[in-house]
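Exercise 7. Predict the structure of Anthranilate synthase component I from Sagittula stellata.
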Amino acid sequence: MVLAGLFVFKIFKRLDQDWYRCRALAESVKTSTWRFSMRAHPFEDTSSIEVPKTNFRNLLKDILQTNRHIAANLETSVTEQVTGSMIEIRKLPLNQRMDYYVRNRIDNQQAWYSKKSTASKAALSFWVVATIVLYIIAAIALNAEQLGLPSATLAFDPLIVIVTSALGWLQMKRHGELMASYNLTAHEIGILLGDLEAVKTEDEFSDLINEAELAFSREHTQWVARRDAN
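Solution. The predicted structure, encoded as tokens:
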């Protein structure tokens, strides 16, 4: 009864969708912040810092408008959206910005995606093995009477329910799909590190930043897709 009540509450509140929206919103703001701090398109350097700052604020407005259901519940901030740290990082020369981006963004994302790929692989293996074992036990329970264990047949129906639940959980969590996606992104990030060595100009760095942020946004795009599917 309690579980049924919790399920109804979840459906009513759609908390899972709110979580996906929040993560997507946070990642959109984060990737825009990195682009601004690195002087990447559409926040290239100009004669006045007010131009990219205005572009950044306008982009934030668009992001919030797209996610207005969540944005309406955010705490109101009285501080400037473009922080002093963002400006200071933006002022760094090209080589220092490149080093900063590698240390604080690329390395961080590569470690995160590699860790998530490993975790998804382990979860997939666990649930596949668990489902197979449960199937075998259910088959034994079904034929328990022939094996001289008539009372064991009573376990068949509960086992079938458990097996079905395990299959549903495996399908819902999409461990195999996520493992492949995380692994692909981790390899793409490794390639980006190699490409970074050839960067010599601001335009080349801007192109690399946008390529990297596009790769990093793969997971946040999946969050949106999962939100819409649920």
